[in-house]
Design a protein that fits this description.
The strands form two sheets. A six-stranded parallel sheet has the order 2-3-4-5-6-7. A three-stranded parallel sheet has the order 8-1-9. It has a single domain, classed as Alpha-Beta Barrel (TIM Barrel). Helix 6 (154-162) links the parallel strand 4 (144-148) and strand 5. Helix 1 packs parallel to helix 3 and helix 2 (23-32) packs across helix 9. The chain has 14 helices and nine strands. The protein has 357 residues and is α/β, with parallel strands linked by helices. It binds S-adenosyl-L-homocysteine (SAH). Residues 79-80, 117, 119-120, 148-150, 170-171, 173, 212, 241, 243-244, 246, 283, 318-319 line the site of S-adenosyl-L-homocysteine.
Length: 357
């Protein structure tokens, strides 16, 4: 027991010294890292993560304007409130013109990155998306366009990249194939998720992966695989936030992820891959009123205010009690600026590109 305790402190020490850890060490770190006797090491880890972030990105926290373009989805991910099987979901879809208006609003608020996220909605064919991406790019060549629209074929990713899309967020959800199968319907596969990520990278996108913290079936062994995947894949972005149950999904009564584990993992990821763009997510802000501030203080350096029309926001309900569904975009922006400045950071609205070494 005593041996196991000092081993964790030793692993944290080596991580903060910049050493590369193996999967077994990641597993021990995740299994024991939150125990009370490691509080001091944990604080050292958090500080080292903040320093690592500062040495690459200074005190800047980047903003991405998020437009939730559709809550229609053909998929049936067990955790997600907008899964096809949720017959009680109130669905909406923005028209291309509405999406452009949101992007325009983001531009006038100063945002130079727009993220188009949505369920896998067959309405958004390559041709429709191409039109939207080209329209944004032709009026504002200085805006980075990020897509987060789930799995598509390589040809589709290629066309959208050709049309001007710069970045793509596709959380891998878990790097363990059995765990992936527990979270997804049998029509979906871990292999295809990984193939999408590989295709996106080959096509020249800046790629984001990520996972939920505390998803049903997650263990220290599956988390160790996630960390090893991030270490090896070196994504430009990595989205992690707590799993939060949605009442109309098979996981309705599963426990949610914790702020402590999410923040701990944010620090670990920052040290495993110091240059990664790491958001303090809305899900983290949902389970704790100061969640996003805590995320930034653990090594995150991105926030994603909502630019969706207020009338539809409540309908993009991935999980229960999601925050920021009532405010106008400008209010979200000022709220986030206040939050970021209250902890001594600077909200920066430019493109906020990944800084390659
Ligand atoms: N359809 C797109 C976008 C999905 S929504 C795609 O498949 O990539 C973006 C992310 O929200 C998902 O990748 C998932 O990790 C997260 N999410 C979904 N349901 C959630 C829940 N109940 N709690 C927390 N995060 C959730």
């Amino acid at each position: 027991m005593i041996h196991a305790m000092s081993e964790v402190d030793d692993i944290i020490g080596r991580l903060t010294d910049g050493e590369t850890l193996d999967e077994g060490e990641f597993a021990a770190l995740v299994a024991h890292g939150l125990e009370p006797e490691h509080a001091e090491s944990r604080e050292r880890l958090r500080r080292a993560a903040v320093e690592a972030r500062k040495s690459v990105y200074g005190n800047d926290v980047y903003v991405r304007g998020l437009v939730e373009i559709s809550s229609y989805c053909r998929n049936n991910c067990l955790y997600c409130g907008i899964r096809a099987g949720n017959a009680t979901a109130d669905r909406y879809r923005l028209s291309p013109d509405q999406i452009l208006e949101c992007a325009e609003e983001g531009y006038s608020l100063g945002f130079r990155t727009v993220v188009l996220q949505g369920g896998e909605d067959p309405f958004f064919t390559d041709a429709v998306l191409e039109g939207v991406i080209k329209a944004i790019k032709s009026s504002h060549p200085d805006v980075a366009v990020t897509l987060s629209l789930g799995e598509r074929g390589r040809e589709s990713f290629a066309r959208l990249r050709e049309a001007g899309a710069d970045r793509y967020l596709l959380r891998h959800e878990t790097a363990d194939a059995d765990h992936y199968a527990r979270l997804h319907p049998k029509e979906m596969s871990f292999e295809n998720r990984m193939k999408c990520l590989a295709d996106l990278r080959e096509l020249g996108y800046q790629v984001g992966c990520g996972f939920m913290v505390g998803s049903p079936g997650q263990t220290s062994a599956t988390l160790a695989k996630d960390l090893a995947f991030i270490r090896d894949f070196r994504p430009e972005m990595c989205g992690i936030g707590p799993f939060v149950p949605h009442h109309a999904t098979p996981f309705a009564s599963e426990p949610r992820g914790t702020v402590e584990m999410t923040c701990f993992l944010l620090s670990v990821i920052r040290l495993v891959h110091p240059r990664v763009l790491l958001p303090a997510t809305t899900a983290l802000g949902t389970i704790d009123p100061k969640g996003r501030e805590k995320g930034i203080l653990s090594g995150a350096n991105v926030v994603m205010p909502n630019l969706s029309p207020v009338a539809v926001r409540r309908k993009y309900e991935l999980y229960d009690n999601k925050i920021c569904t009532g405010e106008e975009s400008a209010q979200c922006r000022f709220c986030l600026r206040r939050r970021v400045e209250s902890i001594g950071y600077r909200l920066v609205v430019d493109r906020g590109d990944y800084r390659a070494g």
